[in-house]
Amino acid sequence: MASSKQQKTMIKGRGAQKLMHNRFFELSHDMRDDFLEFCAKEGEEADKNKTQYLQTFPKTIVNKVKSPDVGMTYSMNMYQGCEHGCIYCYARNSHEYWGYGAGLDFERRILVKKNAPQLLEALLKKKSWQAQTIVMSGNTDCYQPAEKTFKLTRQCLEVFLKYKHPVAIITKNALVLRDLDLLNALNKEGLLAINISITSLSEETRRVLEPRTATIKKRLETVKILSENGIPVNVMLAPIIPSINSHEVLPMAKTVSELGAQSIAHTIVRLNGAIGDIFTDWIRKAMPDRADKVLRQIASCHGGSLNDSRYGTRMRGEGEIAAQINMMVALARKKYFKNRTMPKLNTTLHASCKTGQLKLF
């Protein structure tokens, strides 16, 4: 890890350590040294490092997922951008389509879709819509800090419950327990699955990789409480990063198994688009002693490149290191999750709830 002196030079509470130029824009702006010197002399802050919430007005909220590598058919995201600041996050690239950068902009300019519950309800009421599991957080975390203020995730869960429609959640935030009443009601009807992301058992590693996420202790407690309530929990050991958390696969699997998780899933880190530059800049500042080694090992998992978009291999990787990681996960499943599976969600209740009337035929 970085020394205390190096950590002081890093931007506090953020994953990315610099603004990134949007590759779709012709023009860019830089923080020049003479401007920084002027601010220092004047006692002014060159960058206030504040989070902005910006309201957007989408016309739809549920997206069809076309990737064969992702285990979902439909996803929805109430927020774009994510204050959690996970340095490896694949969703960073999507922020460029909104006109922002994939670096600090992704963490500090959060787009809020306040009409998400209304859009969801309109979809579920359509005669043509047939129930299929919709995943909240296919792109960005639905329980990120913005949810404390806007409560859009809770409102959407109320809609799912009203129309008895299956929903899955992906999150790394203990805030999910705030909605335990709705989660229990959905689960009672077989309408809910939850995926909790746990990347490490080390709080030091968590802080540097995922600066504004829930602590490891809180995430483990979340798995335990959800499981005690009979709610099916899959733990995402994702991403596995060689020489950072790759040695923790078996300990993580054992721990979450003992807490009641039904299954585990994993991916091997890939650094597509702008994320390669963001991650490289970050690791040279946060872990300078092992930066070259980690970058080489990541590239070895993806045909010699940090960037891997190939369907079928991009999530699991290839080569010796990837094979070792995948074998460890297979061993963990065999050892700690024998005869455990996530249940298939109930899609039979929704049709009769669109109008409140049961069909005769």
TrEMBL record:
Name of a matching Pfam family: Radical_SAM
Molecular function via GO: catalytic activity; iron-sulfur cluster binding; metal ion binding
InterPro entries for this protein: Elp3/MiaA/NifB-like_rSAM, MJ0683-like, rSAM, rSAM_sf
The protein's name: Radical SAM protein
Alphabetical keyword list: Iron, Iron-sulfur, Metal-binding
NCBIfam families xrefs: rSAM_PA0069 (NF033668)
Highest taxon, organism lineage: Bacteria
Listed Gene3D superfamilies: 3.80.30.30
Radical SAM core domain segment(s): 68-305
